[in-house]
Amino acid sequence: MSDSWFLLIPVAALVVVVLGPAAVLKLQKVLLGRIEFRSAPAPGAAAPNEFQQSSQESREEFVRRHWQRPGVVADGVTLVDLYDRIRALEERVNKAEQHSASPPLPD
After folding, report:
1. Are residues 98 and 65 in the same domain?
2. What is the pLDDT of residue 46?
3. Per-residue pLDDT, 89
4. What does DSSP assign to residue 105?
5. What does the buried/exposed string (b/e) look like for 79-106 if buried means 16 or more CB atoms within 10 Å of the residue's CB?
6. Cα(77)–Cα(58) distance, rounded to whole angstroms?
7. Maximal CA-CA distance, the chain
8. Where in the sequence is the domain holding 7, given as residue range(s)?
């Protein structure tokens, strides 16, 4: 009987490790769904304040608009710099693709 108890402990630990995070995630989804449902604005509610990201606005636009406001954007200067670097890299990639797609010049 005592041998079976020693086998039960690792099995129970494995079940907790595997199923525990899944149960926590499911519980978070349920709770967040309830919170979002409660906090959803009524159809005739007032417009959101100017420090909230609108549905038509991208995250980049929001960061660029509020990069100097503390607490609204986490380290806005770094994020704006990253957005600038990404844009420059995308332009370089586009130029390289256009250059490789263009036919070679005749000799």
Report:
1. yes
2. 46
3. 93
4. P
5. bbeebeeeeeeeeeeeeeeeeeeeeeee
6. 17
7. 89
8. 1-42
Please indicate, yes or no, if residue 19 is contained in any of the structural domains.
yes
Give 23-80 as a 3 state SS string.
Answer: HHHHHHHHHHHHHHHHHCCCCCCCCCCCCCCCCCCCHHHHHHHCCCCCCCCCCHHHHH
Structure tokens at 104: 């070679």
pTM above 0.70, yes or no: no
Q: Name the helix (H) or strand (E) containing 82.
A: helix 76-101
Task: Name the residue with tokens 């490790």.
Answer: 17
Residue 49, domain member (yes or no): no
Residue of 88, 37, 90, 80 lying closest to 59 (CA atoms): 80
Residue type present at position 63:
V
Token output for 74: 């986490």
